[in-house]
Amino acid sequence: MGDVTTAVNLPVPSVPRVRKDPSEIRQPAGEKKVLLAAPRGYCAGVDRAVIAVERALEHYGAPIYVRKEIVHNRHVVDTLAERGAIFVDETSEVPEGARVVFSAHGVSPQVHAEAAERSLDTIDATCPLVTKVHREAIRFARDGYSILLVGHAGHEEVEGTMGEAPDHITLIQNPEEARTLDIPESDKMVWISQTTLSVDETMETVNILKERFPQLIAPPSDDICYATQNRQVAVKKIAPDADLVIVVGSANSSNSVRLVEVALEHGAKAAYRVDFAREVDEEWFNDVATVGVTSGASVPETLVEDVIKLLAEYGYGEVDEVRTAEEDLMFSLPRELRKDLKAAGQKTSNKRDGADRQHEIV
Ligand code: SF4
Q1: What domains are there in the chain, each with its CATH number?
Q2: Per-residue pLDDT averaged across 137-145, rounded?
Q3: Mean pLDDT, range 50-76, rounded to an integer
Q4: Which residues does [4Fe-4S] cluster bind (predicted)?
Q5: Which of 130, 199, 253 to mutate to test ligand 1, by most ligand atoms within 8 A of the CB atom?
Q6: Which secondary structure element, helix H or strand E, spans residue 80, and what is its range?
Q7: Is 157 a catalytic residue?
């Protein structure tokens, strides 16, 4: 299988690099091709959050404040900033009475309270699948459970979920912590998780927890969302045949970083994450016949197309899409925005022109 390598954080070249001529790359023995994983890219929660900011800018006019990155993608954030969105880290940075959008990752009740204190008009673009986990945390805490949240410290989603019941939730980041962490035992224990984790690693963590606490129960349904799971299944399918996997996604995108790990765990000889095609290092192509390509749930397809174009320049012109699931889920725009759009006689649908998804869920 050869050495496994990864580079999760690549510096963005500050000046355009002179690319190597394709003739300088060591050619593989086999035919060159691309396996393009599907599903990839935008999920329903990201699509809704980005459209919410776009529609807010159109309807109310700039500036529109956005707390944290609306979704974890540099290109999306930069594009919205150019159109008049102002990204802030904290609600306290938003002028009193202004309009602020909460990101897809969700916020804690404390953030809602701060916004109310400052008389902010809020548009809550929290993904409904994150809200589902918040509701679970509230319900289990109310019913007296000790809640073990599997997730990563510092991630905005985890901060938001923990804020719903801080006295009842213990964060478990990985199997090692599941083994060693001093967790208060209780008769009633439940695990829940961040929505964008590796399915396999989460189950490993949970199995260790179950050995320690046989009374531990599972959440009523999967917390790792459909989009995260589908993108991992697709990359697992292409990884065994890939000499190299390129994951398009940002360094702070949990599900994108997981895709690099999953590709390596399932047989890719090398896997790298890039924000943009310009970060692809042509040295990676030495002796490479098959390149797998995928993208995280916050990545617009145009960034994948750029990578495919670059690959074609290096002889990887044949592209086979490998699809493991169909997705047609769509979430309605945030309630506050729909109300204002409706009052102004504007369309409230979340459907982009030409979108082929059918199921809009309110
Ligand atoms: S990755 Fe999943 S939880 Fe996160 S925004 Fe997308 S659908 Fe929602």
Answers
A1: 28-42+226-323 (3.40.1010.20), 44-127+332-344 (3.40.50.11270), 141-217 (3.40.1010.20)
A2: 98
A3: 97
A4: 43, 127, 225
A5: 130
A6: helix 74-82
A7: yes
